[in-house]
Each structure stands twice: as structure tokens, then as C-alpha cells.
Write the C-alpha cells for this entry.
Amino acid sequence: MVDLAKRYLPHHFSFFSAVQAYNRLKSMISNCLLSFAIVGFYHIVCQSKAEDIKVWAVNTNFDNPRNWEGGRLPCANDRVIFSSSSSSVIFMPSSFAAAEMVLPINGELVFPKDAVFNLTGKTAQGSCIGQDAQFKPIVDDWYNPDNWNITSDRAYPRFPSRRNNAVPHAYRVPCTFDSVQFPPQTSFSVQGINPAPTITSLRINDLEYNREDLAKLLASSTGKLLFHNNPTINIINSPCSNPTGCICGNERPPVFSIICAFKYPCPELECQDPITVSGHCCPICAAKIIAKTNSNFRMDRFLELHRKLYNDIFNQVDSFTSKISENEVQIVFVDGTNRNSLSNKLSLLMHTIYNTGNQSQYIY
């Protein structure tokens, strides 16, 4: 690991000049990923909030093949069986036909407005030969990072259809200053909400919930099907107001251990020099910058530099910026291609700008 870390006073440049650092590191870039940490810039003037939007990504919808035995949706000549042990809220499609339906002992079927629902009895209908279709919804865990989609001003590039691989596991789960959403037209079943998470806001089916509203929902029969085991979810209605950013909070014990239990064992990596990243459960093929900040640091102007650096080439690099301590910011870069050097080049370019004093052409 090439370590350019050095503490120094505000407004001083790096121990290495930017050109020296660039030239020294440039020769080490090869087809494998180079891991390095660069710390110490004090002359960025910026501001941003740190909250993200975390959207629940899995559901117990009727038309989701994941919820059916064998991954097969039922056809019109099938007998649909809701297991007596699967106590769930199930969002139904707008149009549905089956030969027969066996309902669960405890559960709810939610039909959209003007839905069409027919029980036809067994009749031959083309390729639908008629068989039992078993509905087996999965109860998913709050702290599993794979169960959330993230929208963040701190993640680049901003392609909603692409999962950003630079986001550490701890930040894929709702943080203290995040807004949490359970999308409309979906049903869900969540467990493992312990220890109690703290979030800024909560929307379920496009309805905003405050603490009192949520308490009523959790005490209801529907709420007990949606959120298992009588959980506590703290809603603080207080977004991040610190211009230097806010710390996520998921790296504290025991939360981080719970998150990482879903990611172990760590995968085998193709790069020769993986790095460790704060908030990530496993080593990864990436580059990173660790930046020391002072009270003049402003996150939003810092992120503006990222935005201006991205182009058609660097759009193939995922990046994510996070405040990891009171005076440290971490930027992670992960290649979206097999060229492996792009993340290093982007991080080196950013380091050069930070340390030459030329960032005024990027930050206004």
C-alpha cells in the first residue's frame, strides 16, 4: 500500500507536491488495482448534507416469482395455495385468474382499485396444465445491505439503473440521517430490526409516518405482518445540518457485525492488491482517498468537484464519499470495467487537484 499520509497545518500543501505524488504513483499503475490512501487537504471550501434515500428493494407481491415455490408464477388453471404458516401482507395484481385458491389462516390480500379476480375452476387452457402453485414469501432482514437501494448525492455516477459498487456495506443500510421508503404498490415483510435503527423520515406506500403514526401501525394487525417481532424504529425528523457532513452510525457495534454477517464469507477477488475500506465488510478491488478536513470544509462544494471531473471515461468508475470521523472524509473508487486502472487514474487526478491549489477551476 502506497501511503502518502502526513499531518500538516491548515492551508499547507501535501508532504509530496501533487506532481511528485502523481509521477511517483503513475509508474505503479498496472492492470491490477492499486490501493492507496491520501490524506491531508485543507483548502477546499464546500457545503452538503449527508442524508440519502434508502428504498426497500424486496417485496412479497403476488406477481414476484421469488415468492413462489420453484420461481414460477401461477397460471389460470393452477390451484393457488397460500401456506398456513406464511402470515404476510400480499399485494395482488390488477388482473388475476386461478382454478382455486387456498387462503392462509392469518394474512392480508391487498387488491388495487378496479382489480379483476376470477376463480375459474379447472379447465384446459393451452399450456397451463393445472398444478399446485405454492406461495412462499421470504421474510427479509432490515440490516441486510442487499435489501436496500440507495439514492445519494455522494454517489457517482448517478445512474438509477446501476447499483453503485463503491458504496460500503454500512452505508447501504439506512443511516441515522437517511430517509427510508417502502414503495407504493408493494407489500413487504421485515424482520431483524434489532438493535432499533434511527432514521430521519419514513414513507410507506407514499404516506409519511411520524413517530405517533408508526406506533399505531406497528400495534395494528397489518403492522405486525409488515414488521415482525414488535420492533422499535426511531424517527427523529432531523436531517443532517452539518455543512461538513454527518457520520452514518452503522459502523458502531453491534450494528456493523450484524450487517457483515450477511456478506460473509468474503468473495475471492481478481485484483492483486485489494484494499480495506471503512464501512465495508470485506477487502475490495478499489482505490480510495482519506482526506483530513477542518472546520472550513464544505461537503457540497467538495462533491461538485467530483461532478465536474466525471466524463464518458470516468462514468465507468463508481465512487462514494462519506464522512467517517469528525475530521476525515473517505472517497472510494471502483472500476465498472475490466480495465482496472480507471479508478486509480481518477483518484490520482483528484489528489492532484486537491494539492496544487488549482481546484478553483472546478469549485466555485
Q: What stands out?
A: Helices lie at 18-26, 169-172, 211-219, 221-226, 255-261, 299-309, 342-356. Confidence is low (pLDDT under 50) at residues 1-48, 358-364.
